[in-house]
Specification:
By secondary structure, the chain is α/β, with parallel strands linked by helices. About 45% of the residues lie in helices and about 15% in strands.
C-alpha cells in the first residue's frame, strides 16, 4: 500500500507540473543523407520542360505596371508586346544559368548561418496567416504580440532553422507600417535567418535598410542576410508589387524565393502535368528577372502547387496529386541546379485534428522525397494558410525533429550492426543490459517531446490529455523559458530610431 500511494503521488505531481523542454543540440541545417525520389524518367522530364517552353513562347507572361522589368527582358532578347513577354525555346533557362546552385545565408548568430542548396535541408514556419488560434483564445486576428511569440518559439526550437517572414499578420498595426515591426521582431527576438517585407517595393527597401543596421552595408553587398518571398500572380502574371519587390532584393544582392501560387483547376488547367509545366515556366521567369538585375543573386526555385475541391473551390492539401506534383517539380528544379523550396505541414483543417496531421505529414513527406532544400510552411499552418495555430506549431515542430532523424538515413557500420551485442546476449536473452545497448541507447532512437507512449493507465492518471492539450502546455511553457538573445544596445537603438522616423513620415493606413 505505501508503494502504491507513493506512485499515485508521483503521478499527481508530474501531472500538475509544467512540461520540461529537453535541451537539444541540432545543427544549423540538415545534411541530407538519403536520396531524393526520381518520379519521372528523362523523357518525361524533357516533355515537361518543352511544354514550359511552349507556354512561354506561345502564351507568354505579363508584367503589369513594371516598365523596368519589361525593359530588362527586352534588352535580354525577349519579345515584349505591351506588358506581355514571350521567350524563344531555352531562352529563360539560359537566363537562369547565373543563379548559384548553393549559397550561404548569414545569421546574426554565426552558429545559425545556413547553407542553402546541394544536399542541405532547412525548415521554416508558416508565412502569411491573418488569424491565430489556441485552446485558450480560439481563432482570432493576429497581433504583433502573437507575431513576437512565434519568433520566440522559432528561436527556441532546434528543429526550425529559419524564422520565415510574416509569421502572422499583426492586424493591430497599420498596414503601411507593420513591416517595420515585423522586421524588428525578427532581428530582436530571434537570431536565425528571416524574410523581410514584400507588400510594396518601399517596404522591401525598408527591410533591407534595417538589416544593414545590424549586418553593415559593406557585408551585405556580397553576403545574403535577408530574403524576399515573391509569389507569382498565377496564371502567368507578375504585378508591379511582386516584381518591384523582387527587383529591390535582387539589386541589393539579397535572397529571393520565387513561388508560383497555383490551385489546379483555378490558376492552371486541372490536370497536374499541365499545372507542373506552368509552375515551372513561372518560376523560371522570376528567377531570370532576378539574374537580369544582379547576375549571381541568391535565389530559391519555389513551388506552391496543390489541388482544389472542384465542387466548392476550396483548396485541398496532402492529396496524392499534389504530392506527385511536388516530386516532379523537384526534379525540374534539380535540372536547373537551383535550390528548391517546397511546402511542409499543409492542411485545410481548422484545428489540430486527425485530418490536419494526416494532410500535414503527407505534404511534408512529399517535399522531403522531392529533394527540397527549403521546406517552407513547416510549422503552424491551419485552414489552408488562413490561421497560425499555436498547438499546431508545436506538433509540427515535434514532427520536424523526427524528420531531422529520417534525413540522416540508415547507417550500416560496425557499431550499427551490433556484433558485440549478439555475442554478449547469446540466444534467448534480451539485449537491454548489453554493453552495446548501454553505449547507444541515448542516441539510438529519436525521442519526441509530445507523443505519449505510456500505458492506458498511466495516460489516464496523467490527465488523459490528447496531443493538442499537450502541445498547448508545451507552447506556454516554452514562452515562459524564453530569453531574449543578445543584441548590441547601439544597434537596437538605431533600429528603433529608424522605425520611429519612418512611422512619423506617413499617416496610418489600415487597408
Amino acid at each position: 500500500m505505501p508503494a502504491v500511494a507513493t506512485r499515485k503521488r508521483t503521478r499527481k505531481s508530474r501531472r500538475n507540473a509544467q512540461p520540461v523542454s529537453r535541451t537539444r543540440q541540432a545543427p544549423a541545417y540538415i545534411k541530407r543523407k538519403i536520396p531524393a525520389y526520381a518520379l519521372l524518367n528523362e523523357a518525361e522530364l524533357q516533355r515537361l520542360d518543352d511544354h514550359a517552353d511552349w507556354i512561354l513562347s506561345e502564351i507568354g507572361m505579363e508584367f503589369r505596371g513594371d516598365a523596368v522589368a519589361l525593359a530588362l527582358f527586352k534588352a535580354a532578347g525577349a519579345t515584349v508586346d505591351g506588358e506581355r513577354v514571350r521567350f524563344d525555346k531555352g531562352h529563360v533557362r539560359a537566363l537562369c544559368a547565373t543563379a548559384p546552385s548553393t549559397f550561404k545565408m548569414y545569421s546574426r548568430n554565426p552558429d545559425r548561418t545556413l547553407e542553402i542548396g546541394g544536399n542541405t535541408v532547412i525548415f521554416a514556419p508558416a508565412y502569411g496567416p491573418p488569424f491565430v488560434s489556441d485552446l485558450q483564445g480560439g481563432r482570432r486576428y493576429g497581433t504583433i504580440k502573437d507575431f513576437e511569440n512565434f519568433v520566440k518559439l522559432t528561436h527556441l526550437t532546434p528543429w526550425l532553422h529559419h524564422q520565415s517572414g510574416t509569421l502572422c499578420e499583426p492586424v493591430d498595426v497599420p498596414v503601411n507600417k507593420r513591416h517595420l515591426d515585423m522586421v524588428y521582431a525578427h532581428l530582436r527576438y530571434g537570431d536565425k535567418p528571416f524574410m523581410g517585407g514584400v507588400t510594396a517595393p518601399s517596404r522591401a527597401e525598408d527591410s533591407i535598410e534595417m538589416a544593414k543596421l545590424v549586418y553593415g552595408a559593406d557585408f551585405m553587398r556580397t553576403n545574403c542576410v535577408i530574403q524576399g518571398n515573391i509569389n507569382v500572380n498565377s496564371p502567368l502574371v507578375f504585378d508591379d508589387v511582386m516584381s518591384g519587390a523582387l527587383r529591390v532584393y535582387a539589386a541589393a544582392n539579397q535572397g529571393l524565393v520565387i513561388s508560383p501560387f497555383i490551385l489546379g483547376g483555378a490558376m492552371s488547367p486541372v490536370t497536374m502535368s499541365a499545372a507542373i509545366a506552368q509552375a515551372h515556366a513561372e518560376a523560371m521567369v522570376g528567377i531570370a528577372l532576378s539574374q537580369l538585375v544582379t547576375p549571381g543573386c541568391p535565389v530559391v526555385y519555389g513551388n506552391f502547387l496543390t489541388t482544389m475541391d472542384l465542387k466548392t473551390g476550396a483548396p485541398t492539401f496532402g492529396t496524392p496529386e499534389s504530392s506527385l506534383a511536388a516530386q516532379a517539380i523537384g526534379q525540374l528544379a534539380r535540372r536547373l541546379n537551383i535550390p528548391f523550396r517546397c511546402g511542409g505541414h499543409y492542411t485545410a483543417s481548422k484545428v489540430s485534428d486527425a485530418q490536419a496531421m494526416q494532410e500535414s505529414a503527407d505534404s511534408m513527406m512529399a517535399g522531403l522525397q522531392a529533394g527540397a532544400n527549403f521546406i517552407f510552411q513547416a510549422a503552424g499552418w491551419l485552414e489552408g494558410g488562413l490561421t497560425m495555430g499555436y498547438e499546431k506549431f508545436m506538433l509540427d515542430v515535434d514532427h520536424c525533429g523526427q524528420m531531422h532523424r529520417y534525413l540522416q538515413g540508415l547507417g550500416v557500420d560496425d557499431n550499427q550492426l551490433g556484433q558485440s551485442a549478439f555475442e554478449e546476449a547469446g540466444i534467448g536473452n534480451n539485449f537491454l543490459g548489453t554493453a552495446h545497448t548501454m553505449a547507444n541507447f541515448r542516441e539510438a532512437n529519436h525521442l519526441t517531446d509530445l507523443a505519449d507512449n505510456n500505458s492506458f493507465e498511466q495516460w489516464t492518471d496523467d490527465g488523459a490529455r490528447d496531443a493538442e492539450q499537450r502541445a498547448n502546455e508545451r507552447y506556454l511553457a516554452e514562452l515562459k523559458r524564453y530569453q531574449v538573445p543578445p543584441l548590441d544596445v547601439s544597434i537596437d537603438e538605431a533600429l528603433r530610431d529608424f522605425m520611429a522616423r519612418k512611422k512619423d513620415s506617413m499617416p496610418d493606413e489600415w487597408y
